[in-house]
Amino acid sequence: MEKKNVWKTWTEERAAEADAFAREYMDFLDAGKTERECVDTLVNRIEKEGYVELKTLIDKGEKPKPGDKIYAVNMDKCLVMYQIGKAPMREGMNILGAHIDSPRMDVKQNPLYEESGLAYLDTHYYGGIKKYQWVAQPMAIHGVVVKKDGTTVLVNVGEAEDDPVFFVSDLLIHLAGEQLEKKAAKVIEGEALDLIVGHIPLKDTEKDAVMAGVLKILKETYDIEEADFLSAELEIVPAGKAREAGFDRSMILAYGQDDRVCAYTSARALLELKDKVTDRTACCILVDKEEIGSVGATGMQSRFFENATAELMELMGEYSELNLRRGLANSVMLSSDVSAGFDPSYADKFEKKNASFLGEGMVFNKFTGSRGKGGSNDANAEYMAHIRQIMDSSDIVFQTAELGKVDVGSGGTIAYIMALYGMNVIDCGVSVLNMHAPWEATSKADVYETMRGYVAFLEKAGM
Ligand code: MN
Ligand code: MN
User: Fold this and answer.
1) Regarding predicted confidence, which is higher, 371 or 172?
2) Are residues 95 and 141 in the same domain?
3) Residues 157-167: what's their mean pLDDT?
4) Could you say which of 238, 272, 292 is where a domain stops?
5) How confident is the model at residue 17 (pLDDT cuts 50, 70, 90)?
6) Which residues form the domain of 391?
7) Which whole-number Å values give the CA distances from 263 to 32, 169, 272, in the listed order?
8) C-alpha to C-alpha distance for 73 and 82, rounded to whole angstroms
9) Separation of CA 389 and ligand 2 centre (Å)
10) Are residues 298 and 435 in the same domain?
11) Rounded to the nearest 10 degrees, what angle do helices 12-31 and 35-48 cross at?
12) How many Å apart are CA 368 and CA 379, to the nearest integer?
């Protein structure tokens, strides 16, 4: 099968556009290192571009018209955007979906302790990580502490140049003979992922003086007490900004690109529609909790999206249980998530004909799954044909892939959940190297080409 390299197909002008887009994307990654920060950053942006909150329209009882831009937020961690099309909603929407949670370490509920003159925050990692990758490097803490009186304290420390950072220690090589004999999964155990957060003892304090010193700083800085950790969501992420990678600055090395690369490009694709009135309603849904199974009130399995769509249909004067079901079944979706990029250093884990490559464009995965496609949403051939037609007619460079060789591993996405409505869904996204590592790599070419692919889908899809 013929393969194309995006860089070779682009004019200088398009390469410059892609470069400018990559910079905006990198700014987004720096601003959004948690689900909440991603939602907040995007809401600020889309409100400037004319998006109005669904709740506001409901309160006013205002009926949206074609071209109107509407959004809803779920518990500050999940965002859905709609740009109303010409056709009634029961005829279906063109939906882009991605997730905005990323692997990391979360602070436990009772986290603070002191040992041998060092204060620690105990953690529980989130999502699938190679634990040995998360030690001995600068880490930042992002999140919220909600106090008993309901006030929310925002925490973001470790990113500014003069901020302190934190770290998980690792055993020095000189004493690591026994450690290095262990399996990689056991080299660093989950309970060893504890963050060092301080070391000066508070004067005139007998017991846990270092811990007392840290608590004093937390009180002064955030006005929080130790018990406030009970109602906190603090995420420990690699400190530092997204960077261009390679002498040719062709790639982006950054934390959280799984799956913020698809989330940002999806949201931006909706904004690219500007004031164009599309035939069908364009929609983008960005969810939390994908990395732990799409569970919970803010994961894809929650009814949030269905409820928001029902509310919107009610406002449009076309809600009924049957119309809602019809609208969802008639919708088509690109469920986007990062794809495993072919890594020449680990070539034997891929089947080269069916692997994605950095620089070869938007990736479509007809199926994912493991051991006989287990757990996969295997997109219909008719739908895949429709997608090929859209992408080719808009000159989008795309490739098709599986996640690794047969029986080597697996990976899940949100596709199967939306498929429950009976809609056509296909997995797609951007090829990534070092997926789930503290720093993940993408190609600027793929990031921009994928965004262009999303725009083509929003404008042309509908079966
Ligand atoms: Mn993932
Ligand atoms: Mn993902």
Assistant:
1) 172
2) no
3) 98
4) 238
5) very high
6) 6-102+255-460
7) 11, 33, 14
8) 12
9) 26
10) yes
11) 130
12) 10
pLDDT digits (tens, 9 = 90+) for 118-155: 999 999 999 999 999 999 999 999 999 999 999 999 99
Indicate which ligand has the atom closest to the C-alpha of 292.
Answer: 1
Q: What is the CATH number of the domain that holds 117?
A: 2.30.250.10
Q: In the chain, how many domains are there?
A: 2
Rg (CA), the chain: 23
- Measure the CA–CA gap between 418 and 211, rounded to whole angstroms: 47
Average of per-residue pLDDT values in the chain? 96
Does residue 203 lie within any of the structural domains?
Answer: yes
- What pLDDT digit, counting tens, does each position of 301-344 carry? 999 999 999 999 999 999 999 999 999 999 999 999 999 999 99
Give me the residues paired with residue 365 across strands.
Answer: 427
**Ligand 2 mean position, distance from CA 138 (Å):** 24
Indicate whether 245 belongs to any domain: no
Segment 426-445, tens digit of pLDDT = 999 999 999 999 999 999 99
208, burial (CB in 10 Å: exposed 0-12, middle 13-18, buried 19+): middle
Q: How far is the CA of 102 from the centre of ligand 2 (A)?
A: 7
Which numbered ligand comes closest to the C-alpha of 365?
Answer: 2
Task: Specify whether 144 is located in the same domain as 204.
Answer: yes
Q: Do 123 and 189 fall into the same domain?
A: yes
pLDDT 10s digits, 217-228: 999 999 999 999
> Measured in angstroms, how far is the CA atom of residue 137 from the centroid of ligand 2?
23
Q: How far is the CA of 290 from the centre of ligand 2 (A)?
A: 7
Same domain, yes or no: 50 and 80: yes
Question: Which pLDDT belongs to residue 371?
Answer: 83
**Is residue 216 domain-shared with residue 125, that is, in the same domain?**
yes
CA of 339 to the centre of ligand 2 (A): 8
> How many other CB atoms are there within 10 angstroms of residue 116's CB atom?
6
Q: Are residues 203 and 307 in the same domain?
A: no
246 lies in some domain: no
CATH number at residue 364: 3.40.630.10
What's the 99 CA to ligand 2 centre distance in angstroms? 7
187: CA distance to ligand 1 center in Å?
A: 22
Q: How confident is the model at residue 385 (pLDDT cuts 50, 70, 90)?
A: very high
Same domain, residue pair 306 and 432: yes
Of the ligands numbered here, which is closest to the C-alpha atom of 413? 2
Backbone phi and psi for residue 213, each to the nearest 5 degrees, phi listed first: -65, -45
